[in-house]
Each structure stands twice: as C-alpha cells, then as structure tokens.
Amino acid sequence: MAPRRPAPPAQTVAPDAAAAFRRRLHAWFRKHRRDLPWRHTRDPYRILVSELMLQQTQVSRVLDFYRRFLDYFPDLQALADARPKKVMEAWQGLGYYARARNLHALARHVTTEQDGVIPSEPVALRELPGVGAYTAGAVASFAYEKRAALVDTNVARVLQRVFAPHLHPKSGPGLKQLWVIAEQLLPRTGKSTWTHNQALMELGALVCTARVAHCTACPLTAGCATYPLLAAAAQDADAQHGTAPRPPKGTRRGVRAKNAPPKSLTKSTASGSRG
Ligand code: SF4
Questions:
Q1: Are 98 and 108 in contact (CB under 8 A)?
Q2: How far apart are CA 224 and CA 250, in angstroms?
Q3: With 203 labelled, which of 89, 111, 152, 171 sits at a CA distance of 20 to 30 A?
C-alpha cells in the first residue's frame, strides 16, 4: 500500500503581521462600512434571520425581505407559533426555501427545548437546524460579541489572497487552513472581534471580490501575498501594449484599472453575496 501523503504544515501568521492586518482593515472599515440593518442589532434572532437570508444571496436583494420577514415575525416566539405556510409566504421570492424551513424548525426547537434562548457558543449553535460552522461563528460574534472566528466565501477569498495564494479556498484542506488563519487573526476582545469579522466580510464583498481584486482601493496591499503578482501581471500587460494579463490563481481578472475606485464603494447598498 502506498504511504499516506503527509498533511501540509499548518499556516501561521506572525503576531506583528496579524496586528498590522487588523489595524489597516479596521481603519478601512470605519470609513467605508455600509449602513446595514443587521449591524444595528445584537438580537440573536434578528442576526440569525439575516445570516440565513444572506446565504447564497446578495445584500441588496436581502434588505427588503429581511424587513418584511421581521414585520411578520418580530421575534422567535412569533416565528415558532406560525404555520409553515405563513413562513413560506414571508420567504416567497428569496429562493433556497430549505433556509426558511430550517429557520422555522430552529425557532420551534429553541422555544420548546431551550426556554427560547438561542445559544451563544459556536459548539451549541451548530446543533441547531441549518446552522453550520460559518453561521455559528457569525451569531456568536455578531449577537453575543464572542471572540469567535468565521469563514464564508468572501472571508476565505481575502485570507487566501493575503496569506496563502497557494491554497485552494474551496478544497477541504485549504478551507481548514483558512479557518486556522482566521483564528490567528482574531483580536483579543469579543467587541473588537465584532468589528473585525464585519470588516473582513465587507472587504471581500466590496474590494477583494471574486470578479475583480480592486487592489488600488484596498488597505491590505502592504501585506498581501497576491498583490505583487497582480501588479507584475498588470505591468507586463502595459509593457505589451494592452495585452490582457493572465491573473494569478484565485483571481479572475487581476488589478482593476489604475486609481479607479470600485463602483461598489460609491453605492450605499452595493451588493455582495455573503455565501
Ligand atoms: S491587495 Fe488586492 S488581492 Fe490583496 S487583499 Fe487587497 S484587493 Fe485582494
């Protein structure tokens, strides 16, 4: 039998690099954050509703559905008491209806089995219907201000480009390493972790996007492992009179045109799938 291939060494981020990353990212977020309704609440029910709606769906599309759903079901008990047909009606048009069914099952479970209290620890949250590792981290961090990491597709892309361009963010081992990096980057307190996680997701949605890496508008160029590769590819293309560069792994189009701010930064409700 062929010997097993050894696991790749765990990725580590030096403490000073992690501190510089946080400083730049948080300063950028304070200036550029969008005003989104779920950023004004610490109610775990409302955070859960927003997080489930944002799975596979862009922010701009979720906004109206989020308000409407909360008008129908303003708290966990109201949702638990509702008939399944009413819940599906409130979700109508948003798609991926398993999310609505899971949310309803979660509300009934928590109200009957857990005294109506949504747990605050990621391990306990993961026991609930429809709650995976990302959603558990998001609820712990955004509702309870716990020092919990989270990695969705936006965060995975940013961490992969900055720290580990060799990793594949969608492979099992690659994703596992990105979770390790996310843990290493966490600030010391839960309150700062709220800002940190929101900022990471916002940068992935607005600047370091799947379609284009808007490096000229990014606060992380100084420590980003992918940036020099993209800049060199853009320079090569310039030298060859406008021939399109071949972007490095993990980017589709490379650096956006010089000094052009991303359109998304100029819109208050720019879209960005949260995965
Ligand atoms: S410098 Fe470019 S590739 Fe690196 S994180 Fe910023 S936008 Fe992404």
A1: no
A2: 13
A3: 171
CATH number of 34-149+186-206: 1.10.340.30
* Ligand 1 atom nearest residue 158's Cα: 5
Query: What is the Å distance from ligand 1's center to 230 Cα?
Result: 9
C-alpha to C-alpha distance for 138 and 49, rounded to whole angstroms: 11
Q: If pLDDT is split at 50, 70 and 90, which confidence band does 169 have? A: confident
Which protein residue's CA is at the shortest distance from atom 2 of ligand 1? 215
Report pTM: 0.85
Instruction: Compute the mean pLDDT over every residue in the chain, rounded to the nearest whole number.
Output: 88
CA distance 104 to 134: 19
* Model pLDDT for residues 109-126, shown as the tens digit of each residue: 999 999 999 999 999 999
* CA 218 – ligand 1 centroid, Å: 6
Best residue among 25, 153, 224 to mutate for probing ligand 1's pocket (most ligand atoms within 8 Å of CB) is 224
Report domain extents, the chain: 34-149+186-206
Residues with C-beta less than 6 Å from any ligand 1 atom: 158, 161-162, 207-208, 213-215, 218, 220-221, 224, 226-227
Between CA 120 and CA 47 the distance in angstroms is: 12
